[in-house]
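User: Second chain of the day. Same drill as before.
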Amino acid sequence: MTILTAAFWTLIGLGAAAGIWGIGIERHLRVVRFEEQSLAVLPSGAKQIRVLHISDFHLAPWQKRKLAWIAKLGQLDVDVIVNTGDNLGHPAAIGPALIAMAGIGARPGVFVNGSNDYYAPKPRNPLSYLAKPSERVSDTPLDTDALVAGLEGFGWRNLNNRGSVMELSGLKLGWVGIDDMHDGIADLASIPASVKDLGRVDVLLGVTHAPYLAGIDAMNDAGVQVLFAGHTHGGQVCIPGYGALTTNCDLPTKAAKGLSSWSRGGSQMWLNVCAGLGTSIFAPVRFACRPEVRVLNLVSVS
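Assistant: Same format as last time:
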């Protein structure tokens, strides 16, 4: 066997092993990530607020293990839920998704929709994500109204192009959100209008599905202190030691998941991106990017 032949079969073997790991193992290795850095954004003397950030479940009704794992999240000691969308991955997933989220639905929460909460997925070339952000190819609408009604039935605040004030732990939390930027239905002009309508709040928090730079800038300009987002899947398929190859939007890959700090016009805002739990049912793989939900601590400035 020549060196080239040996190298060829070695590459084939490594590719097969990576495929087996990413498709058969890692995409099922769900984890609750507890952010080590606490965010000092609450007024002095305020009680800590623990936030459970969930995103990108991409649920299908036959995903029993994932549904059971989500149901167990209700056992976490958290104060508020932030859901940044893409709950659905199949037209028949609404009922199972709401049942699985019932445990965390007992907590106060907020949500926005992602593109996959509006339309069912269709097969596409996964390599196309490396060239540019994906475009909607599906024309199969989902029953978004039923999903939204179910989430609102938990008592969660609908932040699609709107704001809301939540009283929690003796504080007034101001929330402002936008609908999905990836499908072009976000209204950035609604952000300052919503903030104005909130009145005086103790902290201003933002929620979006897709963390496009224009949305990040608009939230920062409005005085948002922490912005929660999903959509990126953390890159979904990453290179060990390097990280994400794409974010499926114009967000830099170094911010594909976790916390990053954004400064603009003398203001500073935290962005927290949750890599989410799911994948499209047509691209069921995770590599060097475990499925996740995130827990963050908001604490007082002193």
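The longest helix spans residues 3-25.

User: Great, on to the next one.
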